[in-house]
């Protein structure tokens, strides 16, 4: 589920919740423009841009995911 978080929607939700603008900008810089590549069978893939998702394995991933889904009971 962490890989399905839409960056712009997450940032909008953070603003709606009243999270400080400086924090939202920091998170935006953390999320937008990320790239990854994969090492498989001795070969390294090319770079792929990440259009959505939050970092799995980082301390921020679960926090950002909870912010993203916090309004599900209202839906």
UniProtKB/TrEMBL annotation:
Domain of life: Eukaryota
Species name: Argulus foliaceus
Database matches in Pfam families: RVT_1
Protein name per its UniProtKB record: Reverse transcriptase domain-containing protein
Domain annotation Reverse transcriptase: ranges: 1-75
């Amino acid at each position: 589920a962490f890989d399905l978080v839409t960056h712009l929607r997450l940032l909008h939700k953070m603003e709606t919740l009243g999270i400080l603008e400086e924090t939202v900008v920091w998170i935006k810089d953390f999320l937008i423009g990320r790239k990854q590549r994969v090492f498989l069978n001795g070969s390294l893939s090319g770079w792929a841009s990440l259009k959505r998702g939050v970092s799995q394995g980082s301390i921020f991933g679960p926090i950002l995911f909870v912010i993203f889904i916090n309004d599900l009971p209202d839906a």
